[in-house]
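Worked example (supplementary).
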Amino acid sequence: MNRWIPKCLLLNFFIYFSVSLSRIPRIGIGGPVGSGKTMLIEQMVPILKHEGYDIGIISNDVVSKEDAERMRKNLATEKGLMPEDLVIGIATGGCPHTAVREDPSINISVVEEMEIKHPNLDLIIIESGGDNITTTFSPALADYFIYIIDVSGGDKYPRKRGLGIETCDLLVINKIDIASFIGADLGVMERDAKIIRRDKPFVFVNSKTGQGVREATDYVIKDVLFNAPPKSKIKI
Amino acid sequence: MNIENDDNFISIDDISFLQLSDSFFPTGLYTNSNGLELLFYNKNKDKKLTYNDIFDFIRAYLSQQVGPTDCSVIGNVYNCIQKNNYSTLLELDNMYYFMRLIEETRSASIRSGIQLLKCISSFTDNNEYVNFYLKNIKDGSAKGVYPVSFALSCNAMNIKKERSGLMLLYGFTISVVGAALRLGIIQHYDGQRIIHEMKPVILSNVINNVNRSYSSMWQFIPQLDIIQIHHEQMDSKMFIT
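After joint prediction of all chains, the assembly is encoded as:
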């Protein structure tokens, strides 16, 4: 019977069901307040959307819904890249680290609700504030962890290590455009990041202009989505 | 496994009692202030909240809502298990859901309840009541509210009905004390003093409510309901409820 079915159709069928039956891939983006997490997401989502991927966003704000509202307005209302209900803000009781690591119950619950409501999403992004010393995402919550820092903390930042910088899957160093103004040497940051991170990747970005964001997004497409086609493009 | 030594008798179930009472147990309850956050910001304008305000706040909740409703649900779930009464278990779930007046408190209760059950089912033996409830949540026949999930979890870990009631009220108390500490209203010694002084209130509310029939469950706490409604509308907040 199989000879009547084109091979590509079988492959698509396999990908569609293996993907739709498993959980939606999730990436966690963590970093200190003001490091550029929200802006990085605002730059990555249009690139992913251009590739055909459908995205949901969960934002853990420490004291407000500002980030979620900003992304909803920018990415959903104004650019129409996603429905408004796919940007959700969560209050964490002042414990952002706990909410993505020791007790991610509420985040997992919201992710599961999103998976039930929007099973055809290709990726869920979970944003959370957190310092470089203790921030990590529970593997039960996120499959891939991006930690973002910016140069304004000084070029010593990568060298000072911490769980976020050392254990994340991708380290993003943001605001490279202001490095010269504050005396941060990008060469030093690159040297130290290579030593600390060993084989794990890091990228320099300027989230304001989009410089370097394509490279960061390519890591997500390759390492999280395994270059799979978007669910919406798989025909069965 | 039990260890008996003269008058002392300890067992694995005692450790389960500690495990489920511990704020380290992952249920997300630390994200709730139960409206205390709004009271803090409003009161802060002219007069700061005091130790006594926090004590009264918790006591009012325990006596007027958590005791006569949540604790009664606990007792009734145990009765359902004893009588193999699955349909009343689902009725309790439904009734509790509709007794939560504020949308955010309803969804917070469900989120914590479902995650609690999933966590318990990941390491306890195949418990038929936990499985039944999880199946009905998945089918959409049950919501997964926290007190029902909590009682089923306690039962799955061989914890007695009255102790489950104590754990629930104690857990509520420490979640509000934790919120008060993080808001900077009280200091850490004050927090422990409140918990210590709340013990008779917790005990009497469990004794008075754990055997209450589900048809006589009640709650009356309008001022705090209104505070929660306003908290839900806050633009900038640290806590879910």
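Two points are worth noting when inspecting this output. Chain A touches chain B at residues 62-66, 90-95, 98-99, 102-106, 108-110 (CB under 8 Å). The beta strands of chain A are 26-31, 55-61, 87-91, 123-129, 144-150, 170-174, 202-204.
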